Every structure is written in structure tokens, then in C-alpha cells.
Amino acid sequence: MSIFQILILLFIVAGYILPVVLTANSKKVKGVEKLGWVVVVLVSAWIGFLVFLAVTTLSSNRLQPTEKQ
Predict the structure, then answer these.
(1) Residue 57's closest CA among 38, 29, 30, 31?
(2) Distance between start and end Cα atoms, the chain
(3) Could you report the per-residue pLDDT of 8-27, keeping only the tens digit for each?
(4) Domain limits of the chain?
(5) What is the pTM of this model?
(6) Which of 22, 30, 37, 42 has the fewest CB atoms within 10 Å of its CB?
(7) Can you list the positions of beta strands (E) in 1-69?
């Protein structure tokens, strides 16, 4: 196996593991909900991670009170 093949393999593995690590380290969700998101991201990798970001960002925006000007 050449160095180029090893680098490609490492890039693919890192690309699959990175969303799982980012989801597991997120402070936006806790407990069983976090476990559920980690499973979703494990199954669908980047698509699941993007859905996680969209859902948790939208729900955290709704929970914050809006400022009146």
C-alpha cells in the first residue's frame, strides 16, 4: 500500500468520524437525545450532522426571548 493510498484512507476515515465526534461533544443536547443524534450521524454521516445542526440551531433560537426595539 502506497503512502498516497494511506492518506486517502485516513481522509475517508476522518471524514466519517469527524461528524460523530462533533455531535458527541456538542453542548446543545444532553442525555438520551445526544445518543440518538450520535446514532443518526453514525448511520448517515455528514447529512445527519447537517440535520443535527439545523434542528438544534432552530430549536435554540426559538427558546431565546426576542428583543423588542
Answers:
(1) 29
(2) 63
(3) 999 988 888 999 999 999 99
(4) 3-63
(5) 0.71
(6) 30
(7) none
Look-up of cell digits 453514525:
42
Give 10-48 as a DSSP string: HHHHHHHHHHHHHHHT-SS--HHHHHHHHHHHHHHHHHH
Is the distance from CB of 18 to CB of 48 less than 8 angstroms? no
Per-residue DSSP letter, 64: S
| Euclidean distance between CA atoms 46 and 11, whole angstroms | 14
Under DSSP, the state recorded for 29 is -
Best CA proximity match to 16, nearest among 41, 51, 52: 41
d(Cα 12, Cα 55) in Å, to the nearest integer? 26
